[in-house]
Every structure is written in C-alpha cells, then in structure tokens.
C-alpha cells in the first residue's frame, strides 16, 4: 500500500518500459514492512535538469535511482558526489543530505566488485583488463581501483574515452597502475567485458578468448541473457565467471545502505524479485 507516509524513491530515466528496479525493490520493501516505494518517472533529457531539482522539493521524497540517459547529466546538478562517481563521470543514485544538499554516488562498479568478492575472487593486488571504458566500464574501473587492484589496463575503441578514464583513475587512485592497451587477455587475473557486445545475436566476441588462461576470472555486464557467447566461450576455457545480472543484484544492497534502509543479500533479493 502507498499511503500519505510512504517515502518515494524516484526511478528517473527515459523511456521507462524496461525498468527492472521496481520489480526488485518494491517486493523487498513489502516483505520488510518498509513504508517506501520505487516509482518509475519517465523524464525526457530536455526536461531533466529542472525536473530533478523539483522532485527533490517534494516533502515525501527520499531519494532517486538514475538511469539512462541521465547518469552523466546528473553530475553537474548535485552538491556532493562520491569519488567513484567522479571517476565514472556519471551518477546513478541521489539522496538528500543536510540542509537539502543533493548527494550522488555510482554503484554499478560497486555491484560488480561485491559480486567478485562474494565469489571468493581477490581484487586487492590483482591485474585487471577492462574492455570498454564508457559509463559502466568507468564505474567498474573506479571500484576495482578502490578495492585495491594493483594494475588496470583499459581498452576502448574511442581513444578519447580511454584517455579520459585513465586520467581520472590516476588522479583519484594514484596507487593503482593504469594504462591503455589492447584487448589481449593474457596474463590478467580478472578480465571484464564492459562493452555492449553480446546484446545482438551476431555480435563478435569482445576479445580473443583463446588467449584466456583458465585461471582468469571473467566478468560480463550484458544482461540480455545469462550466459552470453563471451561467457560460454570463457566457461569452455575453464574460467570462473560472473554473469551480467549479478552486477545488478549485488549493487542493490549498496543502494539500500546509501538510502539508509536495512540491507539484504543479493541472493535474498533474487528470491523475492518479480522479474519476468
């Protein structure tokens, strides 16, 4: 039930038809007797800057989840942002701070890294290859560096994108060795596909899987299907791996903590979600 005391979490993006967050958060709130609800709000890009400010003027607003195409725009509309958001250059969560200040964070990478750690993969001291330096790749790189990765190699078809992320990582995480390289996965402890390759049926693989060592941990961000062609090929090589939806479910406990709600395990959230 939504009542006059229900705290609203706006799910901001456009279009809203593919939004999955309400089907995960709202069952959790219901099961936990938390008087809060996630509400999809479709906002076109041209209206977003003014709408974000207005939605946080509501007396019953608690926070916002931010998705495409607003993650980058949100950065310039906030009063305070986390280091991970600064490195990623984008934001996917906003809450009210003291005196009405808007505070933002980025949890895509946090979810990815939490998933690795829960599977027993050590990130501290690891050598990491990230293929794709866009929004999700940047977030993963930031969280990898924050978790103590020793070396991160970036590859993106857009050289300027790679260079920008490399510079931000070096600024905020100077203890991590960062460079721009090829897609060759040989010699890395962790290899991440942070590109959209795998979304379409005839997409090429993001890298030469024959160069993967069986001891390499492989991560995927594509969520269209659980075992993408890339993960299937890595699995055939004997690699341990993480599916794309793990990043989604593992970041939700971090969101709950950010918003000040009781947290929950990713497994529990999966068990009660009402995804089709």
TrEMBL record:
Domain THIF-type NAD/FAD binding fold: 121-158
One Pfam family matching this protein: ThiF
Top enzyme category: oxidoreductase
GO molecular function: NADP binding; shikimate 3-dehydrogenase (NADP+) activity
Alphabetical UniProt keywords: Amino-acid biosynthesis, Aromatic amino acid biosynthesis, Oxidoreductase
Record has Protein transport as a keyword: no
Pathway assigned to this chain's UniProt record: Metabolic intermediate biosynthesis; chorismate biosynthesis; chorismate from D-erythrose 4-phosphate and phosphoenolpyruvate: step 4/7
Entry GO CC: cytosol
GO terms, biological process: aromatic amino acid family biosynthetic process; chorismate biosynthetic process; shikimate metabolic process
Residue ranges constituting the Shikimate dehydrogenase substrate binding N-terminal domain according to the UniProt record: 13-94
Enzyme Commission identifier(s): 1.1.1.25
Protein's UniProt name: Shikimate dehydrogenase
Source organism (scientific name): Rhizobium tibeticum
Lineage summary: Bacteria, Pseudomonadati, Pseudomonadota, Alphaproteobacteria, Hyphomicrobiales
């Amino acid at each position: 039930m939504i009542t006059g005391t229900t705290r609203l979490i706006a799910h901001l993006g456009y279009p809203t038809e593919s939004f999955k967050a309400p089907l995960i958060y709202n069952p959790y709130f219901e099961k936990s007797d938390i008087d809060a609800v996630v509400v999809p709000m479709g906002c076109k890009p041209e209206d977003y800057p003014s709408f974000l400010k207005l939605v946080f003027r509501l007396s019953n607003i608690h926070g916002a989840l931010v998705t495409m195409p607003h993650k980058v725009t949100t950065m310039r509309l906030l009063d305070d942002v986390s280091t991970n958001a600064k490195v990623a250059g984008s934001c996917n969560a906003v809450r009210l701070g003291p005196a009405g200040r808007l505070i933002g964070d980025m949890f895509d990478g946090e979810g990815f890294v939490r998933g690795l750690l829960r599977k027993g993969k050590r990130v501290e001291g690891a050598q990491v290859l990230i293929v794709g330096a866009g929004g999700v790749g940047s977030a993963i790189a930031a969280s990898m560096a924050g978790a103590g990765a020793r070396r991160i190699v970036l590859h993106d078809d857009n050289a300027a994108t790679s260079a920008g992320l490399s510079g931000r990582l070096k600024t905020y995480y100077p203890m991590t060795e960062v460079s721009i390289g090829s897609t060759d996965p040989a010699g890395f402890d962790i290899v991440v596909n942070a590109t959209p390759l795998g979304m379409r049926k005839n997409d090429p693989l993001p890298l030469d899987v024959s160069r993967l060592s069986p001891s390499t941990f492989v991560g995927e961000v594509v969520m269209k299907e659980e075992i993408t062609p890339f993960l299937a090929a890595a699995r055939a090589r004997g690699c341990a791996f993480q599916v794309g939806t793990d990043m989604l479910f593992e970041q939700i406990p971090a969101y709950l903590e950010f918003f000040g709600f009781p947290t929950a395990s990713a497994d529990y959230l999966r068990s009660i979600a009402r995804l089709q």
